[in-house]
Design brief:
Blueprint: H1 2-15, H2 17-50, H3 56-66, H4 71-82, H5 97-121, H6 125-133, H7 138-148, H8 150-165, H9 169-175, H10 185-195, H11 199-228
Length: 229
């Protein structure tokens, strides 16, 4: 049975239009969420990492807690927000790809933001002091910090993508797993296993493993570069 399912999974990857449609939809939804999270988190992380203000410690603690936010909790919050009785229910976004992007955005922002803050805090103070001594203004000093932390910022983006593309609870809750519309790799795997049909699930699982392996490989290479820098 396992051998037959693996053979069918391989056939689907080479010939199946549906499997690649699900993969593409997953990449678009998760990629959009991570792109938006990056646009929000890196400037905000830069400000928090370089600034000293009252309440900074508790704020960072809240952000770090959000890094471990369970996907089903994120899904529940977005569901309540977008449901008919919710404050944004009139937009009619529930059970759409847009709702899935919002749910994954809630998951991605704390992770990307937390890693960004940590990266900026670990920038050598000597580099920042040298920039200021040469007459750099705040924006120029911030650009120096970004350049020094660029490798870890890339890790933050990759980690954010890895977190959202592999989660199932949030997208299932707000997307509804509608075939051809909101079904992504993780929700499709769940449905196929529930039906006792493993070929499509195995095919999609292989793709997820390739994505995870690639992401881990890239992050390991970045870490080696950072240590050798």
């Amino acid at each position: 049975m396992i051998r037959e399912s693996l053979s069918q999974a391989a056939d689907l990857l080479f010939t199946g239009g549906e499997v690649w449609s699900i993969i593409l939809r997953s990449l678009i939804v998760s990629g959009t969420a991570v792109l938006l999270a990056t646009v929000v988190s890196i400037p905000l992380g830069l400000i928090i990492g370089l600034s000293r203000f009252t309440g900074r410690g508790p704020l960072v603690a809240v952000i770090n807690t959000g890094m471990a936010l369970p996907p089903v909790v994120a899904g529940l919050l977005v569901f309540l927000l977008l449901s008919r009785s919710g404050p944004l229910g009139s937009l009619g976004l529930l059970y759409t790809k847009q709702a899935m992007v919002v749910a994954q955005l809630v998951l991605a922002i704390p992770l990307v933001l937390g890693i960004t803050i940590s990266a900026i805090k670990n920038v050598p103070q000597q580099a920042l002091l040298q920039a200021r001594s040469l007459g750099a203004n705040r924006l120029q000093t911030a650009m120096v910090a970004l350049r020094e932390a660029r490798l870890m910022l890339l890790v933050a983006i990759i980690a954010g993508m890895g977190r959202v593309i592999a989660e199932v609870g949030a997208v299932m809750m707000v997307g509804g797993n509608i075939r051809g519309e909101t079904q992504v790799m993780t929700t499709a795997i769940m449905e196929e296993v529930r039906k006792g049909e493993f070929a499509l699930g195995l095919a999609l699982g292989m793709i997820l493993l390739v994505i995870a392996f690639t992401a881990n490989g890239v992050m390991a290479r970045i870490e080696r570069q950072a240590m050798g820098a």
